[in-house]
Design a protein that fits this description.
Elements (H helix, E strand, L loop, with lengths): L2 H14 L2 H9 L7 H13 L2 E5 L6 H11 L4 E5 L6 H5 E6 L4 E6 L6 E5 L6 H13 L1 E4 L2 E4 L5 E6 L12 H4 L2 E6 L5 H10 L14 H12 L5 H15 L13 E3 L3 H17 L7 H12 L4 E2 L1 H5 L4 H11 L4
Helix pairs in contact: 3-4, 3-11, 10-11, 11-12, 12-14
Length: 330
């Protein structure tokens, strides 16, 4: 793609990206601060990627997800995950019709555009398996029949990092299906002062639909055309391969700290999320800064550190930071 084509594409991105401000304004009616979380939710929506939100209770995770769903004029279901939840409670079941002598399908709450899986790590393995099929295949199986899910379909899951009693660690295969793992922190002092003055901000009922799903589909088609230079593609591969073979990149000190590196899905999601990030910045091309901006959220749940690293209180974020600081930026 030459310079003129990139310039024309950037102009198209600027024109088509106007709806983003309307979404952000609507979400701002219910959410104070948490700009990074809101931006990651929008990137997930634009890049068609599921998101795992981790943070202590009371940080507006649920309200933010509901606000995005309401602003996009799409179907929304909140599912509270509990240890006694059954797959049928999620996907639906077959009900016997005595009058007709046949079984009829009763669809579950998974049949919506936005699924908020609240405290996802509280559900047992069978429920996680049913959700995994929905996330990966965009379909669910009830009895002998498979049913496609409506588009857009996004799973936005939350988990509480401080309470582990009665929880089930998510299978690695399922964690890898999430494009992002976003860590939610406490608001700044001035933001909390605003929250204090507003009172209870846990309601998203005042959010009005400002975007149709068709606009999201159109934006996704445009995002797929956003230009990534070969040097930036190689930068993505260098970062991902450094999580698997750090010694090849002069990072011998990380050799004993990484148990498992990032999967190929990390490379795919880094490119897709970087395109969506460029779209948010109204650009028709991806820069290395886009990769660095979304790199932690894409990689932190795909880079497993060793027990020795955990003993030294070294996290996957520390490893990723070391890699970004060391890999040469094109």
């Amino acid at each position: 793609m030459n310079h003129e084509e990139i310039t024309a594409l950037t102009g198209e991105v600027e024109r088509e990206g106007g709806f983003l401000q309307a979404i952000e304004d609507e979400i701002g009616k219910a959410i104070v601060g948490q700009h990074r979380m809101v931006e990651r939710l929008l990137i997930g929506l634009l890049a068609d990627g599921h998101i795992l939100l981790e943070g202590v209770p009371g940080l507006a995770k649920t309200t933010a997800v509901k606000s995005v769903a309401l602003a996009v004029d799409a179907g929304f279901h909140r599912i509270q995950f509990t240890p006694d939840l059954l797959p049928a409670d999620l996907i639906g079941t077959l009900i016997y019709n005595q009058r007709e002598g046949t079984f009829q399908v009763k669809k579950g709450p998974i049949f919506a555009n936005f699924i908020l899986a609240d405290e996802i790590n509280r559900a047992p393995a069978k429920v996680q398996s049913a959700l995994l099929e929905a996330m990966q295949e965009r379909q669910v199986t009830i009895g002998d029949e498979s049913f496609p899910l409506d588009e857009p379909f996004l799973v936005l899951a939350t988990q509480n990092p401080i309470e582990q009693e009665g929880t089930y660690p998510l299978p690695e295969a399922q964690v890898d299906r999430f494009m992002f793992k976003v860590l939610i922190d406490y608001p700044e002092r001035d933001e909390e002062l605003q929250i204090l003055r507003q009172g209870d901000t846990s309601s998203a009922d005042g959010i009005a639909p400002v975007v149709k799903p068709e606009q999201i589909f159109k934006a996704r088609k445009l995002i797929e055309r956003i230009y990534i230079d070969e040097k930036v593609e190689n930068y993505i591969l260098d970062v991902v391969f450094a999580t698997r073979q750090p010694a090849r990149f002069g990072l011998e000190r990380l050799q004993g700290l990484i148990r498992y590196g990032a999967s190929p899905r990390a490379s795919i999601y880094l490119a897709g999320a970087a395109r969506a990030h460029a779209f948010l910045r109204r650009r028709g091309y991806v820069t290395p800064e886009d990769i660095r901006a979304i790199g932690y959220e894409v990689l932190r749940h795909r880079v497993m550190v060793t027990f020795e690293a955990e003993a030294d209180e070294i996290t996957s974020d520390d490893v990723i930071r070391d890699i970004f600081d060391h890999i040469e930026v094109p």
